């Protein structure tokens, strides 16, 4: 969550499990996406990155 996302998403290999929680809680508080998050959020398909960036919503690994 938060800083962990920004550090790990820019790596060469990304590993996700069913216990994954993706969240950027600082966005829900009215702050901007940090640690380069705006770079990868802007490259997500559709308006998914904008949604995550504006709302600070979290995603879980299980359905």
Automatic annotation (TrEMBL):
Molecular function GO labels: 3-hydroxyisobutyryl-CoA hydrolase activity
Involved pathway(s): Amino-acid degradation; L-valine degradation
Assigned keywords, A-Z: Hydrolase
Xref: InterPro entries: ClpP/crotonase-like_dom_sf, ECH_dom, HIBYL-CoA-H
Keyword Hydrolase attributed: yes
One GO BP: L-valine catabolic process
UniProt cross-references to Gene3D superfamilies, sorted A to Z: 2-enoyl-CoA Hydratase, Chain A, domain 1
EC number(s) recorded for this UniProt protein: 3.1.2.4
Pfam families per record: ECH_2 (PF16113)
Catalyzed chemical reaction(s): 3-hydroxy-2-methylpropanoyl-CoA + H2O = 3-hydroxy-2-methylpropanoate + CoA + H(+)
Residue ranges occupied by any Enoyl-CoA hydratase/isomerase domain in the UniProt entry: 1-61
Functional description taken from the UniProt entry: Hydrolyzes 3-hydroxyisobutyryl-CoA (HIBYL-CoA), a saline catabolite. Has high activity toward isobutyryl-CoA. Could be an isobutyryl-CoA dehydrogenase that functions in valine catabolism.
Family in the record: Belongs to the enoyl-CoA hydratase/isomerase family.
Identification of the protein by name: 3-hydroxyisobutyryl-CoA hydrolase
């Amino acid at each position: 969550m938060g800083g962990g996302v920004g550090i790990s998403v820019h790596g060469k290999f990304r590993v996700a499990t069913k216990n994954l929680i993706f969240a950027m809680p600082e966005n829900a508080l009215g702050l901007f996406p940090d640690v380069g998050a705006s770079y990868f959020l802007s490259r997500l398909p559709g308006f998914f990155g904008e949604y995550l960036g504006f709302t600070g919503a979290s995603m879980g690994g299980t359905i």
